[in-house]
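anyone seen this seq b4? input:
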Amino acid sequence: MKPNLGNITRLQKNAEKQKFASYIGKRLRSVREKTGLSQEQLSEKAGYYRTYVGHIENGNHSPSVHTMWRLAKVMKVDLGDLLKGL
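predicted toks r here
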């Protein structure tokens, strides 16, 4: 059963998704930089292309929870740290 979120339009839903992707990207970049890893190092250790990590950080892609978990694991932080503040 879907939760009732009122009469949200497709445009509002897309804007919400973009805001979420942007937040996740900024948070990922911040944590990655604090850990001293480059995009290339993070992506290689997590098993992703560097460009994919770049797209996430730029808010162009909204990663799955599994992807976020893998990235967090490489950076040695809790997944919750990446989602903090949502």
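The helical segments are 10-35, 39-46, 50-57, 65-75, 79-83. The mean pLDDT is 92. kinda curious what u guys think
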